[in-house]
């Protein structure tokens, strides 16, 4: 018996050989078109043969006993119709046998040419697909002069390549940035340990200092790994848990975790809690509010302010807005802050530097819940982030107040 691990490749190779030696689409379409033309031509020839016989039978009758010359023969008048019909059928058959193969050959040639022109764009798409690889996703079909369904196929194929290239480029940047971010705390760990071990006069104070640096580097690496796992969970979530959640209730944990850091920097925090019912994963939605509050505290200025609001919009959607003071951010750079490992201006990093994943996690979680997130610069400096989530089923939109 053939081993199971070897049978599948063998079948795959045989399948490829059979497909390689089979007739292509162009020959098959040419044969089909030629066969149809031959069938129609044969049918027309047969109909012509029948019609000629019928017309010959309609020849007027001549006096009995008279003779009529048909071609080179003299036939009695009472046999005139049969003689004319036989001669006409013979002539039609002779001409048809000459024209029939010519028509079939012409049909085959014309079909081959036309089918080749029709299939040329498909061959271009196939050639482009064969040239593709992870390093050559910039290849395109380049079909701009085609029309109809083939044009739609080429346009759809190019659009798919655009999306694939964007995804691959984003993945490369993400991996490169993640590697760089992880390399920094690991390099700090290695450097501190090597320097301390290489110093024979290191005392307890030096060891304590090294321990504090190692602990901080380990905390940063742990935060980065946790952020990466949360981002992967949010981006890979096709279906999130659908449980009733009020965004006002998700603020408690985030406010408690940032109260100490906000007080140490003298930040004034204002909270306006309005009911904002929605449905989703409570843990993920709590992470949204937590990340927004941590981002507002970490990237703020000493003595600044933070405003947090939750409410239900007139259309029934739940909304959360977190605004904070800080240095000015160009409006055209706000969207960049929602990309992984993107941070604001250096002036906003007065506290401990973050992993650069906070807002990207917010966007991924909100998108997984079918919502939207929008950021805008605050006049005078700072950032405001607004999150909109679908309403809880059964929630009625509020009436607009004049």
Secondary structure topology:
Blueprint: H1 4-21, H2 25-57, E1 67-70, E2 73-76, H3 80-131, H4 148-198, H5 204-235, E3 243-246, H6 251-264, E4 268-273, E5 277-280, H7 282-298, E6 305-312, E7 318-324, H8 358-368, E8 372-377, E9 383-389
Parallel strand pairs: 4-6
Antiparallel strand pairs: 1-2, 3-5, 6-7, 7-9, 8-9
Helix pairs in contact: 2-3, 4-5, 5-8, 6-7, 7-8
According to DSSP, the number of beta strands is 9
Which strand order does the major sheet show? 4-6-7-9-8
How would you sum up the global shape?
elongated
The CATH fourth-level homologous superfamily of the largest domain? Histidine kinase-like ATPase, C-terminal domain
Low-confidence stretches: 1-21, 346-352
Helicity range of the residues? 55-70%
Mean pLDDT: 76
Radius of gyration: 41 Å
Report the top-level CATH class of the largest domain.
Alpha Beta
Structural class: alpha+beta
CATH architecture of the largest domain: 2-Layer Sandwich
Main beta sheet: strand number and arrangement? 5 strands, mixed
Number of helices: 8
Q: In the residues, how many domains can be counted?
A: 3
| Pattern of helices and strands | HHEEHHHEHEEHEEHEE
Distance separating the two termini: 83 Å
List keywords for this structure.
402 residues; alpha+beta; Helix Hairpins; Heat Shock Protein 90; two-stranded antiparallel ribbon; 57% helix; disordered N terminus
Concise overview:
This protein has 8 helices and 9 strands.
